[in-house]
Amino acid sequence: MKNKRKVLKNKNILLGVTGGAAAYKAVDLVRRMKDEGASVVVIMTAASKNFITPLSLEIASGNRVYSGVFDDPMSHINLPRNADLMAIAPATANIIGKFANGIADDLLSTCLLSFKGKVVIAPSMNWRMYDNPIFQENLRRLTAHGVMQTGPDRGTLACGEEGIGRMADVSEIIETIKSAFSKKDFFKKRIILTAGPTREYLDPVRFLSNRSSGKMGYAIARACIRRGAEVILVSGPSCLKQPQGLKSFFRVETAQEMRDAMFKRLAETDIVIMAAAPADFSPEKKEKAKIEKSGKLSVNFKNTPDILSEIGQLKNKPILVGFAAETGRRLDRAKKKLIQKNADMIVFNNVTAVGSGFDVDTNEITIIRKNKELSLPLMTKDNAAEAILDAVSDTMKKQAKSGPIQRLRANHRRRR
Ligand code: CTP
């Protein structure tokens, strides 16, 4: 899918693959980087060829694979010079030790020494080696020099033991690489973000909910983290993996719990983004025991708190972004929500449009602000998240220019 917001578009990545059991995952990593628009050149160490063949990586990358220092005498200078970022995945204790101590005895370690840009490493080894204080010292040395580390994870290791040392998931490595290229326009901004549905219980086993998967909200969380924000994610039930790098994560079930979790943390918050789809109604009474099947069931419902509206009424409200998932191109309803809920922005999407509904990885959104409307084509939720943050960043700049007094007046005018 073509999109100018692809963070890795036209980036040249030099990937080092070293001799670890996770080397086979490098093929997937190369493909995923290419999907994100990057061009990838691979350097393999001699040991890595015990795990994977150069041909696999040549096919995946569409580029020649390099290995020996003397195969092409100037490659240790030319390859790093042409790269925007170097990544090593998997990164063994050996390459980390060499890099940390300035040793350059093969093509990869020589390229690392001559490279001037950001380096991402994805360590992978047995937990005993990972725990070794000498190795840890090497790792600290590299991170102190700005090397970005992703993983390792805990789990079953290649030797069959349990422990820390598994290479980070490919999606997490991609996330770290994207973060290296992202602008940091949300640096130190505190953002409360909601995602997913809520559940409103009738009894201990039955509840009212909706089809929200949380995918859009989680994509926004990842984008906020990449762009330097401190993110508090308040999530309804979702099967998605918690994004790495969150400041905190709260798992809630009901709309009331979502509201309470948010209000406890609102004081220091710059931005609130409500991508969640809280249920609008909750049974008046939650039965303590399972309701027995005995003919007809009628239930009385009460309204849940409208969290967005409540925050919109606060005196010094944060920048407030809501969503309007509508059935049909009902921009009129979304615009009404902008005014009624006193939000700074509403992200409209038509959940009945192809590729824009629930549980898919794409979305077609319109970003609505007071005097601005931006309709975007169908794109991945990751790219839609970038577009939403671009609009929030613009609002943030405008508000900073207008100053606190002008901001209060503007809010007051809006409320009348
Ligand atoms: N929202 C909220 N609290 C609720 C319901 C919704 O804060 N109890 C937020 C959502 O997170 C979203 C925005 O309000 O950002 C709009 O939600 P939506 O369901 O589209 O609108 P509603 O106000 O619930 O109105 P309706 O269901 O009639 O469309």
Explain what the structure shows.
This protein has helices at residues 25-35, 54-61, 75-81, 93-100, 107-114, 127-131, 133-144, 170-181, 215-226, 255-263, 307-312, 331-340, 381-415; strands at residues 12-17, 39-44, 65-66, 85-91, 118-123, 148-149, 153-156, 162-166, 190-195, 200-201, 207-208, 230-235, 248-251, 271-274, 281-283, 301-303, 319-326, 345-350, 362-363, 365-369, 372-375, 379-380. With 416 residues, it is an alpha/beta fold. It has two domains: 12-181, Rossmann fold (3-Layer(aba) Sandwich); 190-281 and 299-415, 3-Layer(aba) Sandwich (Rossmann fold), CATH 3.40.50.10300. An eight-stranded mixed beta sheet has the order 13-12-9-14-17-18-20-21, sandwiched between helices. Strands 3-2-1-4-5-6 form a six-stranded parallel beta sheet, sandwiched between helices. α1 (25-35) links the parallel β1 and β2 (39-44). α1 (25-35) packs across α8 (170-181), α8 (170-181) packs across α9 (215-226) and α9 (215-226) crosses α13. The two termini are 44 Å apart. The model is unreliable at 409-416 (pLDDT under 50).
**End-to-end CA span:** 44 Å
**Helix fraction?**
25-40%
Average pLDDT number: 93
Strand order of the largest sheet: 13-12-9-14-17-18-20-21
Task: Identify the CATH class of the largest domain.
Answer: Alpha Beta
Low-confidence stretches: 409-416
What would you give as the CATH superfamily of the largest domain?
CoaB-like
Number of helices: 13
Query: How many DSSP-defined strands?
Result: 22
User: Percent of residues in beta strands?
Assistant: 15-25%
Structural class: alpha/beta
Cofactors, ions and other ligands in the entry: cytidine-5'-triphosphate
What is the chains' assembly state? single chain
Number of domains: 2
Radius of gyration: 25 Å
